[in-house]
C-alpha cells in the first residue's frame, strides 16, 4: 500500500518553481561528499533535480544545492556551493527557495545525471541538548514596530538597508563571471568590410540583483565609398544592464546604458551615440529545463547622438540629435543538449521627438543578434554570430545603406572573477 501511495505522490507533485519557498526545513543527516538529508520530500512538492538555495533567517545565504533523490517525507541534496561552511548546521532551521535551471554552473550540471545510493538513510532524529534553553530578555522575534520604537525611523531604515539590501547585493555580485572573446574573421555587408572583433562580457546570476556588462572593439578594412580606396576603421561599443530580478514571479526591473561609436570611411556615423534607460521592466514569458528564458522587455531610452557630416561646400560639420526611444526587447535562449544552444536578442527602438512628441516609425534603430553556441570544454566556446542592423541615419546623413549584416565566428573563454 505504501508503494502505491509514494507512486501517487510522485505523479501528483510538482517541482519547486523559481523563488517558491519552503520554511522551517531541518537537516536530518549529513552524508559524505556534501550530501544532506532534510525533512521535506515529495509531499512538500520537492522532486529530483530541483535546484534551490538554502538560507537562514538570521545567518543569511548558506548554500546552493541540487536534489539527487526524493522520497515521500525526506529528500537528499548535493551542496555544490557553500560560501561559508560555518553557517551550515543541523541545529538551524532553513528556508529553501527554488532557483532557475539556467543558474546551475555548467560544471555542476552533471550532478543531475548521477545515480547516488545511500547505505544508511535512517534520519538521526536525536537533536541532542537544546542550545536555546537559556532564557532571554529579548522577545523571540523582533517585529518592525519593535525596531521603530527602539531606534527611530532613520535608524530603522539604515538597519534594513544594511542588513538586507547591501547584504544581498554583495552576495549576488560576489559570483561575477567574465568572458573574453575574439572573432578572427568577421564580414559585414556594408562596403564588403572584413573585421577583427574582440571584447569581453561580464555578468552574474544573482538571486536578487543582476549586472551584465559588455565592451567590444572592431577593426575593419573596407572600401571607401568616396575614394574607392581600402581604408581601416574602428568601432567601439559598450553596454551595461542592471536588473532587480523577480520583483514578481513574472516581472523584473531593467536599467540600461548603451554606447557606440562607428566610423564608415572618414566620417563618424555616429561619432558618439548614448542611450540611457533609467527604469524599465522585463516580463518572463517562459522558463523551463529546455527554454532557459523567453523574455519581453520595455525601457524608455534618452537618446543623444553626434554624427560627422559633409556640408555642401565640402567642409565637415556635426549633426546633433536628442530624443526619446522606446526600447522594446525580445529575447530567448534554448539548448538542444549540454553542448549546443541557441540565443537570440531583438531590439527595436523607435524614435520620438521631444519637441513635438511625434514618433518616427521609419527610424526604429533595429538590431537582431543571433548566436549558435558550441560548448567545447567546460569554459571554452565557439560561437557563430549573425547580426542584422537597420539604422536610417546611416543613409540620411552618410549616404550608406541603412541595412547591415554581420557574420562572425567567435572564440570565447569564461572564467570567474
The main pleated sheet reads as: 12 strands, antiparallel, barrel
**CATH 4th-level superfamily of the largest domain:** Autotransporter beta-domain
CATH fold call of the largest domain: Lipocalin
Regions with little confidence, pLDDT below 50 for 5+ residues: 1-13, 124-164
Span of the ends, CA to CA = 53 Å
Written as H for each helix and E for each strand, in order along the chain, the element string is HEEEEEEHEEEEEEEEEEEEEEHE
Mean pLDDT: 76
Query: From the coordinates shown, what is the CATH architecture of the largest domain?
Result: Beta Barrel
Beta fraction of the residues? over 45%
How many domain regions?
Answer: 3
Q: What is the count of β-strands?
A: 21
Q: What class do helices, strands and sheet pairing give?
A: mainly beta
- With helices defined by DSSP (H or I, 4 residues minimum), what is the helix count? 3
Describe the structure.
The protein has 417 residues and is mainly beta. It folds into 3 domains: 2-113, Rod shape-determining protein MreC, domain 1 (Thrombin, subunit H), CATH 2.40.10.340; 143-171; 175-416, Autotransporter beta-domain (Lipocalin). It contains 3 helices and 21 strands. A hairpin with a 4-residue loop joins strand 19 (366-375) and strand 20. The two termini are 53 Å apart.
Amino acid at each position: 500500500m505504501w508503494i502505491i501511495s509514494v507512486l501517487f505522490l510522485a505523479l501528483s507533485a510538482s517541482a519547486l518553481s523559481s523563488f517558491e519557498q519552503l520554511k522551517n526545513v531541518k537537516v536530518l543527516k549529513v552524508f559524505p561528499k556534501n550530501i544532506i538529508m532534510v525533512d521535506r520530500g515529495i509531499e512538500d512538492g520537492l522532486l529530483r533535480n530541483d535546484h534551490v538555495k538554502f538560507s537562514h533567517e538570521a545567518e543569511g545565504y548558506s548554500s546552493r544545492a541540487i536534489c539527487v533523490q526524493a522520497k515521500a517525507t525526506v529528500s537528499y541534496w548535493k551542496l555544490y556551493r557553500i560560501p561559508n561552511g560555518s553557517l551550515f548546521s543541523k541545529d538551524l532551521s532553513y528556508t529553501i527557495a527554488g532557483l532557475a535551471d539556467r543558474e546551475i554552473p555548467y560544471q555542476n550540471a552533471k550532478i543531475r545525471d548521477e545515480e547516488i545510493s545511500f547505505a544508511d538513510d535512517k534520519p538521526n532524529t536525536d537533536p541532542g541538548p537544546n542550545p536555546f534553553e537559556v532564557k532571554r530578555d529579548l522577545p523571540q522575534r523582533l517585529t518592525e514596530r519593535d525596531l521603530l520604537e527602539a531606534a527611530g525611523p532613520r535608524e530603522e531604515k539604515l538597519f534594513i538597508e544594511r542588513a538586507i539590501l547591501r547584504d544581498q547585493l554583495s552576495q549576488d555580485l560576489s559570483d561575477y563571471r567574465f568572458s573574453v572573446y575574439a572573432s578572427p574573421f568577421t564580414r559585414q555587408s556594408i562596403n564588403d568590410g572584413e573585421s577583427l572583433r574582440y571584447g569581453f562580457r561580464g555578468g552574474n546570476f544573482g538571486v536578487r540583483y543582476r549586472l551584465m556588462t559588455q565592451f567590444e572593439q572592431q577593426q575593419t578594412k573596407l572600401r571607401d565609398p568616396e575614394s574607392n580606396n581600402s581604408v581601416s576603421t574602428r568601432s567601439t561599443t559598450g553596454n551595461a544592464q542592471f536588473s532587480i530580478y523577480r520583483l514578481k514571479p513574472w516581472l523584473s526591473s531593467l536599467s540600461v546604458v548603451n554606447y557606440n561609436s562607428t566610423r564608415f570611411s572618414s566620417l563618424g556615423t555616429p561619432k558618439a551615440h548614448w542611450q540611457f534607460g533609467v527604469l524599465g521592466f522585463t516580463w518572463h514569458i517562459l522558463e523551463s529545463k529546455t527554454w532557459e528564458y523567453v523574455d519581453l522587455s520595455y525601457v524608455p531610452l534618452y537618446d543623444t547622438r553626434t554624427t560627422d557630416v559633409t556640408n555642401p561646400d565640402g567642409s565637415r560639420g556635426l549633426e546633433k540629435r536628442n530624443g526619446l526611444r522606446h526600447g522594446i526587447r525580445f529575447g530567448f535562449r534554448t539548448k538542444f543538449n549540454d553542448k549546443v544552444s541557441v540565443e537570440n536578442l531583438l531590439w527595436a527602438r523607435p524614435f520620438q521627438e521631444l519637441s513635438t512628441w511625434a514618433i518616427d516609425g521609419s527610424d526604429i534603430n533595429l538590431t537582431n543578434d543571433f548566436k549558435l553556441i558550441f560548448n567545447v570544454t567546460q569554459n571554452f566556446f565557439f560561437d557563430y554570430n549573425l547580426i542584422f542592423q537597420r539604422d536610417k541615419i546611416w543613409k540620411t546623413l552618410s549616404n550608406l545603406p541603412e541595412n547591415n549584416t554581420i557574420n562572425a565566428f567567435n572564440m570565447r573563454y569564461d572564467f570567474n572573477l
